[in-house]
Design brief:
The protein is mainly α. The chain has ten helices and five strands, in the order H-H-E-E-E-E-H-H-H-H-E-H-H-H-H. Strands 2-1-5 form a three-stranded antiparallel beta sheet. A two-stranded antiparallel ribbon has the order 3-4. The relative contact order is 0.14.
């Protein structure tokens, strides 16, 4: 009991709240429903043959059949309406291949979902290590998606054939006495096929679940991560200041060497001419 408590305490049950784990739980449940509704089925139908001679009649011919629907091995005894004799007749068809394939996929899907849930809860860090776990999970999930498609389609076709082979109106045509107009043959009870119809529905529900879970398992692989980055903004860069740029290129080369000081050469020449003029004026006086 302590070991169980330690496992429960160390488990990451919050993974069941995210789509990756929650859908896996649904796959686990619906896989059970799929193979159990098909693998545990047993059906029966009843017919009556009323002969001209009432003592030879049989008003309750019961025919039972079950999974895996090897109907060619199912037989029943029907009156020949001749001196109280009976004949043994067999149903037509063997539909075990599609039924067994469907149940097998359901069982293996259930086992894989169980193992995956245990890994998600108790070893999720190991699952994500080196990205191997998500890649294996993605491959297996894709394989089961394809298998559910094939097995559900095959079983849907097989079930249609089973319904035809077990239709009392069709089976009556196998009875020799029913070919005579003086004898009356009719169905008394049809087989109940609701369980088998449900199994086909569960098969296609599993197809949707496993196919939808591909996206969430694919996200765990990290392959799509580089493509999920936000693109850079598409705004125009600010235009450079034309005047500032022009001033930068048209700086006075002498300003850096002379500390920014420029002598006023024109003003120096003007002062020299003014002194010579005053000297000449003074001599003339």
């Amino acid at each position: 009991m302590d070991v169980v408590n330690q496992l429960v305490a160390g488990g990451q049950f919050r993974v069941l709240k995210v789509p990756l784990g929650f859908i896996k739980v649904l796959e686990w449940f619906f896989a059970i429903f799929a193979f159990s509704t098909c693998g545990s089925y047993s059906g029966m139908f009843r017919m009556s043959v009323q002969c001209k001679n009432r003592t030879d009649s049989d008003l309750s011919i019961e025919v039972e059949f079950e999974y895996p629907f090897r109907l060619h091995q199912v037989y029943f005894d029907a009156p020949t309406c001749k001196s109280g004799n009976t004949e043994r007749l067999f149903l037509v068809g063997d539909y075990s291949s599609s039924a067994e394939f469907f149940v097998t996929i359901g069982v293996f899907a259930f086992l894989y979902a169980t193992a995956a849930l245990c890994i998600y809860i108790f070893a999720f860090d190991k699952y994500k290590e080196n990205n191997k776990g998500p890649l294996i999970d993605l491959g297996v999930t894709a394989a089961f998606t394809f298998m559910w498609l094939v097995s559900s389609a095959a079983w849907a076709k097989g079930l249609s054939d089973v319904k035809t082979a077990t239709d009392p109106d069709k089976v009556i045509t196998l009875i020799t006495a029913c070919g005579a107009e003086v004898n009356q043959c009719r169905e008394v009870h049809d087989p109940v096929m609701s369980g088998l119809n449900t199994s086909v529905a569960f098969g296609f529900i599993n197809l949707i679940l496993w196919g939808g879970n591909l996206w969430f398992v694919f996200k765990e692989t990290g392959i799509i991560a580089p493509f999920m980055r936000a693109p850079p903004p598409h705004g125009k860069p600010a235009a450079p200041d034309a005047y500032a740029q022009q001033g930068a290129y048209e700086q006075d080369p002498y300003a850096s060497g002379q500390g920014g000081y420029q002598p006023e050469y024109s003003q120096q020449g003007y002062n020299q001419q003014d002194a010579e003029y005053r000297s000449r004026k003074h001599r003339s006086e």
